[in-house]
Design brief:
Length: about 350
């Protein structure tokens, strides 16, 4: 227990430094890109007086370090400024769009973890047989095909050729009260099963398209790890002792084999937050990734900085969770982390 606590505290400490470094980097990049921030925020028709007041209000006449300090003080309080594309507080935009993408990513994550580990375990259990060869071929196909290609294929098949799933948006029926921002959870809290089912159908195509590459990677890694562990001497001794193969795999092989898979899958899930933009654009899904792309295209500096910071925070949180899970599956990681 003591080693685990030290392990978590050290990861939290390093995460704070990484987050501060990320905020400095993205803030400086947003400030030095070509263009007048005042004109980009207010438009080319803004009066000189309005531009001057904007520069004063946003401390643009001060040095870059002073500008960062003012911005950091506001960011700590949840104030990221006003978006030039939505004309409202960026914090409100984040609050609206972030839960949509998180819900999509959580759905994709469940598919990736369950599907990847299950397919990899089946492939390792029957090496050289039809199921193993099928999983390996499907894995190569999944890794080689980008998420946006799957998204287009799914839309053509399940929204036009065989129209059983909605093609765009997040929900078609009236939304439930926004208790959490997660439509599935809000629908259950409101007891609205119609809204739940409609929101779930809207998640199927984009979530599956986003998850398939990760499923293929997880399946390959799980298979490789399990094949390596199955060749160990202790596994042969357990089989020779008459322990059923199913019990050997579930109890003695799958757990150590899952450690590298969990690490890679979790980092891939964190990366989905930034990689989901093409899928969200194709399905017109109102998430933070689509919002971030629009911010880049419109040179919305306040929104760009906030979105990158949110993605960075999410990545760090997932990193910490991954370290905790990996240290639980393999105590050697925890001990090494506590001693270093």
């Amino acid at each position: 227990m003591k080693e685990m606590l030290i392990f978590i505290l050290k990861r939290l400490g390093w995460s704070v430094f990484v987050l501060i470094g990320l905020s400095i980097l993205i803030f400086c990049i947003a400030r030095i890109i070509p263009g007048d921030p005042g004109v980009m925020a207010l438009g080319t028709r803004a009066t000189p007086e309005a531009l001057e007041q904007y520069r004063i209000d946003n401390f643009l006449y001060e040095s870059l370090p002073r500008q960062y300090i003012h911005w950091f003080e506001g960011a700590v309080k949840g104030n990221f400024g006003v978006s030039t594309q939505t004309r409202r507080e960026v914090a409100l935009d984040i609050k609206e769009f972030l839960p949509a993408t998180l819900e999509l990513i959580l759905f994709a994550a469940i598919l990736e973890i369950v599907g990847g580990i299950l397919l990899g375990a089946l492939s390792a259990r029957y090496p050289g047989e039809v199921i193993d060869n099928s999983v390996r071929v499907a894995s190569y196909l999944g890794i080689a095909t980008p998420a946006f290609v799957w998204a287009i294929m799914f839309m053509l098949i399940f929204a036009f050729v065989w129209p059983i799933l909605p093609a765009i948006g997040r929900i078609d029926v009236p939304k439930p009260p926004p208790y959490t921002g997660f439509l599935l959870l809000d629908s259950l809290l409101a007891g609205n099963l119609i809204a739940f089912w409609d929101a779930f159908k809207h998640l199927i195509m984009p979530g599956t398209a986003l998850a398939l590459t990760g499923v293929a990677q997880a399946a390959r890694m799980t298979r490789t790890s399990m094949m390596e562990n199955l060749s160990k001497d202790y596994v042969g001794a357990e089989i020779a002792a008459g322990i059923p193969m199913r019990r050997v795999i579930l109890q003695y092989v799958l757990r150590p084999a899952a450690t590298p898979t969990v690490s890679i899958v979790a980092l891939d899930i964190a990366a989905m937050l930034g990689n989901a933009f093409l899928v969200e654009v194709i399905f017109s899904y109102p998430g933070i990734s689509k919002y971030g792309i629009n911010a880049i295209l419109n040179k919305d500096l306040n929104a760009i900085v906030a979105v990158v910071l949110v993605i960075g925070i999410t990545f760090l949180i997932v990193n910490i969770i991954v370290d905790i899970i990996a240290s639980y599956l393999d105590p050697r990681i925890r001990l090494q982390g506590g001693d270093s």
